[in-house]
Each structure stands twice: as C-alpha cells, then as structure tokens.
C-alpha cells in the first residue's frame, strides 16, 4: 500500500477530498520524520512507537573481494507495534 492508497482510503472513510487527504497524510509523515530527526520518539496510541537507534561504527567485509571496509556509525529508525495493532493483525 502506498501513501496515495492510504490517502484514498482515508478520503473514502471521511468527508475529505482525496487531494486534501493526501496533503494531510504527507504532512503527518513529515512531522513524524522531523521529530525522529531531532532524536525524539513518536508514540501513536493503539498503533505503535517509532524510535531512533544509534548504530556503532564497525568493520565490514566486501563479500566479493574479501576486502575489509569501514562502516561509519549511523542512526536507524526502529518500530515497535502496539499490542492493539498486533491483535488486529493476528485476528
């Protein structure tokens, strides 16, 4: 399902046009991304929580040549589903 598909589903369930729903969904995703970029967590009740996780620098290996390469430290995003979402998915 794409962002456009989500916007169309929201528009069908509400009294909002598809283009307005797409703008709202886009704005919500932007707010989530900006909040995570600042290092803050995002918690959506009944859905789950997004958090940033620091990954340490490490040495990797090129599988084709076997050459060692340095992999820089980075920040990744993690998601943990809420119990309510897990129940909905599992029936």
TrEMBL record:
Gene3D superfamilies: IHF-like DNA-binding proteins. The keyword DNA-binding applies. InterPro entries: Hist_DNA-bd, Histone-like_DNA-bd_CS, IHF-like_DNA-bd_dom_sf. Coiled coil: none annotated. The keyword DNA-binding applies. Keywords: DNA condensation, DNA-binding. GO terms for molecular function: DNA binding. PANTHER family: DNA-BINDING PROTEIN HU (PTHR33175), DNA-BINDING PROTEIN HU-BETA (PTHR33175:SF3). Belongs to the bacterial histone-like protein family. This is HU family DNA-binding protein. It comes from Fodinibacter luteus.
């Amino acid at each position: 399902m794409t962002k456009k598909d989500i916007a169309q589903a929201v528009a069908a369930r509400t009294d909002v046009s598809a283009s307005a729903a797409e703008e709202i969904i886009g704005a919500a995703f932007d707010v989530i991304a900006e909040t995570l970029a600042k290092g803050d967590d995002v918690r959506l009740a009944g859905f789950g929580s997004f958090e940033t996780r620091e990954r340490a620098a490490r040495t990797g290996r090129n599988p084709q040549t076997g050459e060692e390469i340095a992999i820089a430290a980075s920040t990744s995003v993690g998601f943990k589903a809420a119990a309510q979402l897990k129940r909905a998915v599992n029936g």
